[in-house]
């Protein structure tokens, strides 16, 4: 489980002390931590990939936590990054609002470190599973695209090399697909060779000259007569 | 009634002698008395397939052509022991001795004697069918063999090297009014589609393809011993030769 519970957490809080405490606590847990002092700074960092989970304060200058949350959920690239709201406002209404805005969890300050650790762990697990699923779907997409390419005659078996290294059923499917595509290609090449070999193009004029060299001789004329009489003679013999 | 059948190919290396030997064996297996004459005087070879030791051979086709013996005196029975039934095969070999081949090349011979010899052979041995394994190309003895034949099989490979010569042979044979003429597409790579091959060849020459015989390493290994149809009577390839034999006799 350790693999899926590591990751990079972005701590968004305008209070330097909170940021420092959270950073120390999380780094002790083996997590990588980055920080942002307000919503604007946070969105700038989130515009780049690499953040697996966000710890979000609500009350901040420039851009507050609600706004950050709303913008993240409106952004297809950030929609699935888990967000845990850590707020001083211990009100059910606030928690409901944040969850409605798309927060995965809500923790009132002061937070219980054990509870925070557990929730971060659960969030990272969800993110990890989603990443795995996303990766799987992308690779399924590659196989589907390959099927279309085979139809179009543009398939290169190497385009499935990555998928083919998987040790699951999808990897097996990709390998089978590569093998089949290579066999189809080999068969096409054989047929192309066959069509080439079976293109019977005869230089009729030259063949006619060669025939004439043989048939326009006295020997041949004599043979034709003999053949005719031989065959008629045979028939005569048989009839008697 | 007896029949004369010629197995010919314009180029060498098409498997003509193998085809001849297989057709002969299959006709004999049906109880026929079969004669085979190796008229490929310049490059004899079919005796090997029938296991005839040339060192033990006195007379040959050459001896007959030079007036030293009758053609029946140059005929050797080569019926395979495993053939069974009443069928028999006699072979008139050509000499493999270098001086004999050189003499043929240098002095030639009376081609006309061939025809008389064939007739004598048929009569004295009581043959049902005489099969002539011809020399590639269209020299005088080959033309004579074709002219005397009731049926002609022209063997070719599906290869550009064979196409034009086959056209020449087909045209010449038509001028000699051979009653039955069929093509044999031999040594066809196993990956080729046989029906496609047959269709293209028949269309190109306006001539019936009696059979398409595949070529494979397996077949080469199986046929190295002797006559394929004798050693492998139930093999699908033997059935192709059987079909060819039937067409040549019809």
UniProtKB/TrEMBL annotation, chain A:
<dbReference type="InterPro" id="IPR001789">
    <property type="entry name" value="Sig_transdc_resp-reg_receiver"/>
</dbReference>
<feature type="domain" description="Response regulatory">
    <location>
        <begin position="8"/>
        <end position="124"/>
    </location>
</feature>
<protein>
    <submittedName>
        <fullName>Sensor with HAMP domain protein</fullName>
    </submittedName>
</protein>
<dbReference type="InterPro" id="IPR050595">
    <property type="entry name" value="Bact_response_regulator"/>
</dbReference>
<feature type="domain" description="HAMP">
    <location>
        <begin position="134"/>
        <end position="189"/>
    </location>
</feature>
<feature type="coiled-coil region">
    <location>
        <begin position="181"/>
        <end position="208"/>
    </location>
</feature>
<keyword id="KW-1133">Transmembrane helix</keyword>
<dbReference type="Pfam" id="PF00072">
    <property type="entry name" value="Response_reg"/>
</dbReference>
<dbReference type="InterPro" id="IPR003660">
    <property type="entry name" value="HAMP_dom"/>
</dbReference>
<keyword id="KW-0597">Phosphoprotein</keyword>
<keyword id="KW-0472">Membrane</keyword>
<dbReference type="InterPro" id="IPR011006">
    <property type="entry name" value="CheY-like_superfamily"/>
</dbReference>
<keyword id="KW-0812">Transmembrane</keyword>
<keyword id="KW-0175">Coiled coil</keyword>
<feature type="modified residue" description="4-aspartylphosphate">
    <location>
        <position position="57"/>
    </location>
</feature>
<dbReference type="GO" id="GO:0000160">
    <property type="term" value="P:phosphorelay signal transduction system"/>
</dbReference>
<dbReference type="GO" id="GO:0016020">
    <property type="term" value="C:membrane"/>
</dbReference>
UniProtKB/TrEMBL annotation, chain B:
<dbReference type="InterPro" id="IPR050625">
    <property type="entry name" value="ParA/MinD_ATPase"/>
</dbReference>
<dbReference type="GO" id="GO:0005829">
    <property type="term" value="C:cytosol"/>
</dbReference>
<dbReference type="InterPro" id="IPR027417">
    <property type="entry name" value="P-loop_NTPase"/>
</dbReference>
<dbReference type="InterPro" id="IPR033756">
    <property type="entry name" value="YlxH/NBP35"/>
</dbReference>
<dbReference type="Pfam" id="PF10609">
    <property type="entry name" value="ParA"/>
</dbReference>
<dbReference type="GO" id="GO:0005524">
    <property type="term" value="F:ATP binding"/>
</dbReference>
<dbReference type="GO" id="GO:0051782">
    <property type="term" value="P:negative regulation of cell division"/>
</dbReference>
<protein>
    <submittedName>
        <fullName>Cobyrinic acid ac-diamide synthase</fullName>
    </submittedName>
</protein>
<dbReference type="GO" id="GO:0016887">
    <property type="term" value="F:ATP hydrolysis activity"/>
</dbReference>
<dbReference type="GO" id="GO:0009898">
    <property type="term" value="C:cytoplasmic side of plasma membrane"/>
</dbReference>
<keyword id="KW-0547">Nucleotide-binding</keyword>
<keyword id="KW-0067">ATP-binding</keyword>
């Amino acid at each position: 489980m350790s693999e899926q519970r590591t990751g990079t957490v972005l701590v968004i809080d305008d209070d330097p002390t909170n940021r420092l405490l959270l950073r120390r606590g999380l780094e002790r847990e083996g997590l990588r931590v980055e920080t942002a002092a307000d919503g604007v700074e946070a969105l700038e960092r989130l515009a780049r990939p690499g953040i697996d989970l966000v710890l979000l304060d609500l009350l901040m200058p420039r851009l507050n936590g609600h706004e950050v949350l709303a913008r993240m959920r409106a952004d297809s690239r950030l929609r699935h990054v888990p967000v845990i709201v850590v707020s001083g406002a211990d009100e059910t209404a606030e928690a409901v609002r944040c969850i409605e805005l798309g927060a995965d969890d809500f923790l009132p300050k002061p937070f219980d470190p054990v509870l925070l650790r557990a929730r971060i762990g659960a969030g990272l697990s969800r993110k990890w599973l989603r990443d795995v699923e996303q990766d799987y779907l992308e690779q399924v997409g590659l196989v589907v695209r390959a099927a279309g390419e085979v139809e179009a005659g543009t398939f290169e078996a190497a385009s499935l090399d990555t998928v083919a290294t998987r040790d699951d059923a999808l990897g097996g499917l990709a390998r089978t697909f590569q093998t089949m595509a290579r066999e189809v290609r080999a068969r096409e090449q054989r047929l192309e060779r066959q069509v080439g070999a079976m293109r019977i193009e005869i230089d009729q004029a030259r063949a006619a000259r060669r025939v004439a060299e043989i048939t326009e001789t006295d020997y041949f004329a004599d043979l034709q007569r003999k053949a005719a009489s031989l065959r008629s003679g045979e028939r005569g013999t048989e009839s008697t | 009634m007896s029949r004369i059948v010629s197995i010919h190919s314009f180029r060498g290396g098409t498997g003509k002698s193998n085809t001849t030997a297989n057709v002969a064996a299959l006709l004999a297996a049906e109880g026929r008395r079969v004669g085979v004459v190796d008229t490929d005087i310049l490059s004899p070879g079919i005796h090997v397939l029938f296991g005839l030791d040339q060192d033990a051979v006195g007379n040959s086709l050459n001896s007959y052509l030079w007036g030293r013996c009758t053609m029946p005196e140059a005929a050797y029975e080569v019926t395979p022991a495993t053939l069974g039934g009443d069928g028999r095969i006699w072979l008139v070999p050509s000499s493999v001795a270098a001086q004999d081949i050189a003499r043929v090349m240098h002095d030639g011979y009376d081609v006309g004697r061939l025809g008389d010899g064939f007739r004598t052979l048929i009569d004295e041995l009581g043959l049902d069918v005489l099969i002539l394994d011809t020399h590639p190309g269209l020299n005088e003895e080959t033309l004579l063999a074709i002219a005397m034949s009731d049926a002609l099989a022209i063997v070719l490979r599906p290869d550009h090297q064979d196409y034009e010569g086959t056209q020449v042979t087909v045209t010449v044979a038509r001028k000699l009014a051979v009653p039955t003429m069929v093509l044999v597409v031999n040594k066809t790579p196993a990956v080729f589609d046989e029906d496609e091959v047959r269709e293209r060849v028949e269309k190109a020459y306006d001539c019936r393809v009696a059979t398409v015989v595949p070529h494979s390493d397996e077949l080469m290994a199986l046929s190295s011993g002797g006559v394929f149809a004798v050693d492998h009577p139930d093999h699908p390839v033997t059935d192709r030769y059987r079909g060819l034999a039937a067409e040549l006799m019809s």
